[in-house]
Amino acid sequence: MSEPSRMGRISMGLWRRWRRAWLRARFPRAHWGRGCDVRLGLRLALAPQGKLHVGEEVVFERDATLECEGALSIGARSIFGHHCTVAAKESIEIGHDCLIAEMVSIRDHDHAFDDFTIPIRDQGSACSPVRIGNNVWLAARVVVVKGVTIGDNAIVGAGAVVTKDIPAGAIAVGVPARVVKMRPGSPAVE
Length: 190
Description:
The chain is built from one helix and 22 strands. The protein is mainly beta. The strands form four sheets. Strands 2-5-8-11-16-19-21-22 form an eight-stranded mixed sheet. Strands 1-4-7-10-15-18 form a six-stranded parallel sheet, with helices on one face. β21 and β22 (178-182) form a beta hairpin. The longest helix is centred in the first third of the chain and has 21 residues, at 6-26. The radius of gyration is 18 Å and the shape is globular.
């Protein structure tokens, strides 16, 4: 692959600066860290009561979606693959240096469905905070549901559905996700 021309690099740099300036103007209550790279098609829904904090050098690939009715905090240098969805009605915290692969879904809410006399669509949401530690890799098409904590340095394999907490340094796979081993050097191994 050839290196981009000088003019190409300059035009991409200008585009990224313009895009960040547009995001800051469009969503003035959101905090965007220096050096964020937002690709085409980012969908951002920020409710009046929503709080969004994005750390430095975070990358959002094309067509990522952020929905923020509650608090959403993303640590520095995290990368979000294309077509990811992060939806916070209450609270989602994502640590620094995380890899969130393509088509991952992270949500802190689900439909309430306890009352048979009311249609599910009219019962509102059940919410519980989601916490994702530092240096976590969520592979392609992972689903993280409400109330889950994923510890630092954990890896979740492609297509897994995380319904329970994953400890630090664990490798988890499957539906529902379960720990299959610990990463070398993780606290549980020593």
